[in-house]
Amino acid sequence: GGTIGDLAINSKGDIFAGVYPLLTADYTGLYKSTDNGDNWNKIQTQFEDFHVFSIYITVDNHIWVGTDYQDRLYRSTDDGLTWEVKNNGFNTGECWAIGQSKDGVLFAGDANNGHLYRSTDNGENWMFSASIATLALAVDSNNVVYAGTFNGLYYTTDNGVTWIQNNFLSGFVIPSVIIDQRNIIFCGTGYPYISNGDGIYYSDNGGQSWIQLGLGGISVLSLDFDSKGNLFAGTLSDGLFKTTDMGQTWKQYHKGLYGQQVFRLKINKRDDIFVGSEGDIYWGDGGVFRLTDGGKSFKQVGLPLSNIKNIIFSGDSLIIASTPSGVQKYNRFTKEWSNLGLYKVEAVAITPSDNLYAATRDEGLYKSTDLGGTWELINIAVDTIIPIFNVLPLNDDTIFVATAFWANARRTTDGGQNWDILPIKTGSSSRGLFLINNDLWITGHLTQGPAHLFHSPDMGGTFNSTISNLGSNAAHSPFAITNNGFIYLIITENTPGIFRSTNNGLSWEQLLFDLRYSAIFADENGLVITGSSTRKIYISNNYGNNWSLFDQLAGSFITDINKDTQGNFFFASSSHGLYHVDIITNVEDNVVYLNRFHLSQNYPNPFNPTTRISWQSPVGSLQSLKVYDVLGREVATLVDEYKPAGSYEVEFDASGLASGIYLYQLRAGSYSETKKMILLR
After folding, report:
1. Is residue 601 packed enough to be buried (19+ CB in 10 Å), middle (13-18) or exposed (0-12)?
2. Do 98 and 110 form a contact (C-beta atoms < 8 A)?
3. How far apart are CA 146 and CA 223, in angstroms?
4. Do the Cβ atoms of 320 and 305 come closer than 8 Å?
């Protein structure tokens, strides 16, 4: 998955893919594959993980990465092993496109702020070039550089000293420009959420006149050629197209790209096609898709990132996960992920006979009798598709679903042939379903009022409210119930925290306070695990009476916690996929052992004016936590004392400091770690 900002392929065939954060998913980093996309490794740098908007590889294999508000321009001259910031004079906030002229002049553009810069010394220094919102750059054999922008096409014949706008295309957004060996210019039109496209236009006379090549009315976001000169066009919502006859006919490829935009498109020397997708603006989970050997269907090959909604197990080898980009299957023996199809999947569930169910946001409920090989739509209502946010099959006959608020929760007792409408209103932020000892528990509403936790002792015949004012919670399972009668519930409003009942919901006590929690797991032996919206994991070994900080996920919060039949714990995350977690505890004294130093990312970030910084120490030592500005000047000392082994958190108040980037550094003996944070007023 991941929100792909750009793709690039170097002369050796290595593939680079960069991601950036979205509204609901904190995707970050630059990834590299040396085996044609089969495996990906995150490139480690001394900087904060890149928020990648653009990647450009020069003819001498220098890698340039453009980012958002970070340092904006980074360069590696050794295949990504080491990196330097190269933004001197690049006085704008973001870098959306990078390119180079035939004689080595570099260009870098910020489409958001409408600034284009150039460098004549390999990026050591940058000079302002023009006020144009650059999305794409290309150069012809005569060293004419073209810039696709939010306001049409521009070109320069003097390496960016002056730019001229092409009048014909001035009314289009041009997100992609490519030039063939005959100097024919091809431009894709349209841009997500900003402008509808009108296909592809081309010019064979340097832009003096233009002809529409085809795909009228379609937004074309990306273009590339294969080794035979055939043109491929990636679109916003119609998949990939190919023409071998200058647009007279087009072949469409969309199998395996279902619901994905083709935001970036790269074709290697073997004519393998790679697609980078941003995914949905709210839900993310695009990813990298590959088509090899002239195949008919794309295969999702990366990245090792995803917004996982929930996870289930089939046998000892398979883990199945619901994600916005489809149902994903992981084989623990082969260590391979595969996409089983569908889109915007909110939940998966499996019956004892291995029938697989998938709840989707846009296309209803699906069933598979071959573990995702094929899917069958189950009609919940006549002549309409109802959004499904959770599914709970008791067996192949009795199934419960949480649907859109207007449609109410529903139940079938005949395998989906007929459905009963239950009196509970569910939705995207109130979808919990749990069945234990033939008692059904469900979060939802009776009317427009607050959310309740309802209990049905007769499998959906009658419902009793056990507690109200739960608040909004999009978690797949915001509560956990054990076989010996303990109920643990996440509440997000009024007095947010973790609540417990030991008498079937008749009374409740609060165990954890203040934080908003996102997922919870409990067993009958007293183990309780929960993840918070601040990305921390808390654990208790005595039924929630005492808690310890276990760990913190970088850039993610926990969306689901599950344990397989062998006792292995798996944590699903909001943006970094699936974690296999070894939980080593001493049940007698309720201690969680920490086996390494760890400095967490501050939260919130960016912040104004306060933020919290936490860390963990496996041993007692003299520890210091200090804050510095970007020039290395100390601006605050938060901790400077001996600390026993344990987990700690402090608040940093930056009320007296100016907006900008600051560094905080933890030192303990020979250990030292530094992270970046942003004060944004």
Report:
1. buried
2. no
3. 15
4. no
Give dist(CA 575, CA 578) in Å, integer: 9
**436: number of Cβ within 10 Å:** 13
- Residue 434, both tokens: 């749990």
Cβ neighbors of 16 (< 8 A, separation 6 or more) are: 7, 8, 9, 10, 30, 31, 32, 55, 57, 63, 80
Which amino acid would we find at residue 208? Answer: Q
SS3 406: helix
Cα distance between residue 620 and residue 428, in whole Å:
45
d(CA 487, CA 603): 30
Burial class (CB in 10 A: 0-12, 13-18, 19+), 565: exposed
Q: What is the CA radius of gyration of the chain?
A: 27
Q: Does residue 327 contact residue 342 with C-beta atoms inside 8 Å?
A: yes
Q: What is the spatial distance between Cα 73 and Cα 52, in angstroms, rounded to a whole number?
A: 10
Q: CA 531, CA 571: separation in Å to the nearest integer?
A: 9
Give which of 354, 350, 323 is closest to 339, Cα–Cα.
Answer: 323
Q: In 10 A of CB 362, how many CB atoms? A: 13
Query: Hey, CA dihedral for 333, 339, 342, 345, is it positive or negative?
Result: positive
Please give the DSSP secondary-structure letter assigned to residue 537: E
Residue 23: what pLDDT?
59
Query: Tens digit of pLDDT for each residue in 497-510?
Result: 899 999 999 999 99
Could you give the 3-state DSSP secondary structure of residue 101?
coil
DSSP string, 652-680: EE-TTS-SEEEEEEEEETTEEEEEEEEE-
- Measured CA to CA, the distance from residue 76 to residue 296 in angstroms comes to 36
What pTM was estimated for this model as a whole?
Answer: 0.72
Residue pair 231/222 in contact by the 8 Å Cβ criterion:
no
Complete edge-to-edge strand list for the sheet that includes strand 558-563 = 558-563, 569-573, 578-581
3-state secondary structure 301-349: EECCCCCCCEEEEECCCEEEEEECCEEEEEECCCCEEEECCCCCEEEEE
Quote the tokens at residue 96. 């959306």
Number of CB atoms found within 10 A of residue 570's CB: 20
- What the block records as the tokens of 534 is 């601040």
Strand partners, 610: 653
Integer angstrom CA distances of residue 200 from 172, 229, 478, 507 = 11, 16, 48, 65
Q: Are 135 and 148 in contact (CB under 8 A)?
A: yes
The span from the CA of 155 to the CA of 163, in Å, is: 6
What distance in Å separates the CA atoms of residue 505 and residue 133, rounded to the nearest whole number?
58
For the stretch 128-178, pLDDT in tens is 999 999 999 999 999 999 999 999 999 999 999 999 999 999 999 999 999
pLDDT tens, residue by residue, 317-336: 899 999 887 898 888 888 77
Angle at 20 between CA 19 and CA 22, to 5 degrees: 130
